TrEMBL record:
<dbReference type="InterPro" id="IPR005225">
    <property type="entry name" value="Small_GTP-bd"/>
</dbReference>
<keyword id="KW-0547">Nucleotide-binding</keyword>
<keyword id="KW-0630">Potassium</keyword>
<dbReference type="InterPro" id="IPR006073">
    <property type="entry name" value="GTP-bd"/>
</dbReference>
<feature type="binding site">
    <location>
        <position position="234"/>
    </location>
    <ligand>
        <name>Mg(2+)</name>
    </ligand>
</feature>
<feature type="binding site">
    <location>
        <begin position="274"/>
        <end position="277"/>
    </location>
    <ligand>
        <name>GTP</name>
    </ligand>
</feature>
<dbReference type="InterPro" id="IPR025867">
    <property type="entry name" value="MnmE_helical"/>
</dbReference>
<dbReference type="InterPro" id="IPR018948">
    <property type="entry name" value="GTP-bd_TrmE_N"/>
</dbReference>
<dbReference type="Pfam" id="PF01926">
    <property type="entry name" value="MMR_HSR1"/>
</dbReference>
<feature type="binding site">
    <location>
        <position position="81"/>
    </location>
    <ligand>
        <name>(6S)-5-formyl-5,6,7,8-tetrahydrofolate</name>
    </ligand>
</feature>
<feature type="binding site">
    <location>
        <position position="254"/>
    </location>
    <ligand>
        <name>K(+)</name>
    </ligand>
</feature>
<feature type="binding site">
    <location>
        <position position="24"/>
    </location>
    <ligand>
        <name>(6S)-5-formyl-5,6,7,8-tetrahydrofolate</name>
    </ligand>
</feature>
<feature type="binding site">
    <location>
        <begin position="249"/>
        <end position="255"/>
    </location>
    <ligand>
        <name>GTP</name>
    </ligand>
</feature>
<keyword id="KW-0819">tRNA processing</keyword>
<protein>
    <recommendedName>
        <fullName>tRNA modification GTPase MnmE</fullName>
        <ecNumber>3.6.-.-</ecNumber>
    </recommendedName>
</protein>
<feature type="binding site">
    <location>
        <position position="251"/>
    </location>
    <ligand>
        <name>K(+)</name>
    </ligand>
</feature>
<keyword id="KW-0963">Cytoplasm</keyword>
Length: 456
């Protein structure tokens, strides 16, 4: 059964030229539309090679028409796919023709993500899976694409559902006990509720760890390069990126605007932000750049504070250190070690988690730096991250954890345990349902689907 009333259409393939271009239409019942468009019915799930004609019977294009009857389609509604040639103009004409024919059926242009939203509303997938559709399309590395596909096939949702089932089971026991107050006293013992709660808690912790990895894999890490002019920030960005994207010069203060480069370390996306060198200056334009640098630094997940290894105790660097945010993980990176005489190596702080020696020119120390960044990203190479997750999933899992802890607290400390215990279990359960979309506000749905591309 479909929830929506009007059909929607959009070009489903990416803008630009391609071998094939697809116009997709979805609606509760497209049989009338199909007949009007082709003057013949189409057999569902069969490839029909046909002309796509205009109002005068002239072919706009010819190609494959595929018809899927509800509910056996992507959206769970009737879906028609017109696969023609992948040119912008020809696809626009085919789409325009669809609207001409579709006017009688109330055909509208699809909003971003509306096909997938319908798939969600028609129970073809849950919300975490619908999000995975967008994540798969947007994946910037093969590892992220693999994770998105795993989420899409339900790997994440299945674990959420399994955990939810265990909470439901416990809730049922509590409700049953509340209905028979005389048994209340030995509820915890009788059903080993404390043990059950403990094992639900353990499972949730493992789920949170994996979700964190999945979120890093999806969103990556924002790393800001900070330091005085000429210490080699842009050179390091280039060395990490492997190609020339920032301007490198000998004149101090060249990188006035920020440059961001997306790199991948073991498939984990890392956004590296190069910034204008930090120093005292009278130059107005340069000062604007320096202000922006501080804004970037404030937003960073990780700060790489670059220091010229030949002057490790420079006063200006001490000033920078005193101004860096206290709570952001910071690595002091001593660059230009290739220029350092061996006798001066002793002047540098010992290498450890927060002090590294590198050379952007020779590549010395860069591999260690990459591994440090992964580690700070919360990434451990040994933990399989089977699926992608989003920030909102992490928050829901955190809140679920809080409610389970409160439930535990009531179980241990409260006289009226059962009512409060039951309520916390209910709230913990609700948080899990938010992830899969069983209970979700329209606002949230709108926000999620509007970030999709049109035609998906
Ligand atoms: P930024 O102002 O901090 O971005 O510094 P740049 O990357 O523009 O580099 C300033 C100067 O230092 C350039 O001449 C670079 O070629 C040079 N430089 C940067 N890193 C190294 C390094 O590791 N070794 C040597 N020898 N020179 C470097
Ligand atoms: Zn620079």
């Amino acid at each position: 059964m479909s929830i929506t009333t009007y059909p929607i259409a959009a070009i489903a393939t990416a803008p630009g030229r391609g071998g094939i271009g697809i116009v997709r239409i979805s609606g509760p019942d497209l049989s009338g539309f199909v007949h009007a468009f082709f003057s013949q019915p189409l057999r569902p799930r069969h490839a029909h090679f046909l002309p796509f004609n205009d109002a005068h019977g002239q072919a706009i294009d010819e190609g494959i028409a595929l018809y899927f009857k509800a509910p056996h389609s992507y959206t769970g509604e009737d879906v028609l796919e017109l696969q023609g040639h992948g040119g912008t103009a020809v696809l626009r004409r085919v789409l325009a023709r669809c609207f001409e024919v579709g006017a009688a059926f109330g055909l509208r242009h699809a909003a971003p993500g509306e096909f997938t939203q319908r798939a969600f509303l028609n129970d073809r997938m849950d919300l975490a899976q619908a999000e995975a559709v967008a994540d798969l399309i947007n994946a910037s590395s093969e590892a992220a694409a693999k994770g998105a596909m795993a989420s899409l096939s339900g790997a994440f949702s299945n674990q959420i559902n399994a955990l939810a089932d265990r909470i439901i089971h416990l809730r049922m026991l509590v409700e049953a006990t509340l209905d028979f107050p005389e048994e209340e006293i030995d509820f915890l013992e009788k059903y080993q509720a404390a043990e059950q709660l403990q094992s639900i808690h353990d499972e949730l912790q493992s789920l949170r760890r994996h979700a964190k990895q999945g979120q890093v894999m999806r969103d990556g890490l924002h790393v800001v390069l900070a330091g005085q002019p000429n210490v080699g920030k842009s050179s390091l960005l280039n060395a990490l990126a492997g190609d020339e994207i920032a301007i490198v010069t000998d004149i101090a203060g060249t990188t006035r605007d920020r440059v961001t480069q997306l790199i991948h370390i073991d498939g984990v996306p890392i956004h590296i932000v190069d910034t204008a060198g930090l120093r005292e200056t009278e130059d107005t334009v340069e000062n604007i750049g320096i202000q922006r640098s501080w804004q970037e630094i404030a937003k960073a997940n990780v700060i790489l504070h670059l220091i010229d290894a030949r002057h490790p105790n420079d006063d200006s660097d001490q000033t920078i250190i005193s101004r860096l945010p206290q709570h952001t993980p910071t690595i002091r990176v001593y660059n230009k070690c290739d220029l350092l005489e061996t006798s001066h190596l002793d002047l540098l702080p010992k290498e450890n988690d927060s002090h590294l020696r590198i050379s952007a020119h020779t590549g010395q120390g860069l591999e260690t730096l990459r591994q440090r960044l992964l580690h700070l990203a919360g990434w451990s190479p040994n933990t399989e991250s089977p699926w992608l997750a989003r920030e909102r999933h992490l928050h829901a899992l955190d809140r679920c954890d809080e409610h389970l802890q409160l439930a535990r607290f009531h179980a241990q400390h409260d006289d009226q345990i059962l009512d409060l215990f039951a309520e916390e279990l209910r709230l913990a359960h609700t948080e899990l349902c938010e992830i899969t979309g069983t209970f979700t506000s329209d606002d949230l749905l709108g926000e999620i689907f509007s970030s999709f591309c049109i035609g998906k």
